């Protein structure tokens, strides 16, 4: 099963390595990992995605919570949350084909020179996959970079 885990940790050297090390030591490949400072410069938010057994991932989360650097940790998988990923791609194709793809998905043209376009798209991971597939049909995707998933729990709506 796919697990999305959000961690607030102290913004210190080595904190990321210690958390990621717990997952790696259990043989879990981290599919996506993003980390950046929060509104508080002393804290960073780390979002990671792993595929694995529920019980083992739960155990790793409990062990991660014991690390000195970890302020808060939680699994977002079964909670109502928002997640987004950024794709930046360089495409070799006619402008019309790329423009059609951008219009259909709501992507954005960043640069066009000669027969190459640099585009961006932001969405859920499955939407990014679909956009990338459509770009490949429009032309030759010469290169691309994905940011990894950033996620946050949605606020609860009072009834």
TrEMBL record:
It comes from the Bacteria. Gene3D superfamilies: 3.30.70.260, ACT-like. Chain A, domain 2. Residues 4-78 form the ACT domain. Catalyzes the conversion of 2 pyruvate molecules into acetolactate in the first common step of the biosynthetic pathway of the branched-amino acids such as leucine, isoleucine, and valine. This is Acetolactate synthase small subunit. PROSITE patterns: ACT. Dimer of large and small chains. SUPFAM superfamilies: ACT-like (SSF55021). Its EC number is 2.2.1.6. One of its GO terms (cellular component) is cytosol.
């Amino acid at each position: 099963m796919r697990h999305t885990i959000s961690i607030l940790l102290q913004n210190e050297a080595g904190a990321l390595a210690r958390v990621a090390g717990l997952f790696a030591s259990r043989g879990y490949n981290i599919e996506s990992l993003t980390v950046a400072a929060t509104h508080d410069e002393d804290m960073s938010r780390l979002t990671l995605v792993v595929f694995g057994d529920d019980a083992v991932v739960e155990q790793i989360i409990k062990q991660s919570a014991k690390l000195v650097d970890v302020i808060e940790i939680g699994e977002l998988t079964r909670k109502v949350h928002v997640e987004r990923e950024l794709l930046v791609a360089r495409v070799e194709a006619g402008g019309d084909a790329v423009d059609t793809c951008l219009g259909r998905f709501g992507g954005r043209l960043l640069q066009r020179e000669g027969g190459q376009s640099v585009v961006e798209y932001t969405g859920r991971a499955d939407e990014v996959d679909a956009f990338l597939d459509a770009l490949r049909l429009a032309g030759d995707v010469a290169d691309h970079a994905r940011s990894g998933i950033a996620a946050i729990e949605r606020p609860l709506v009072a009834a």
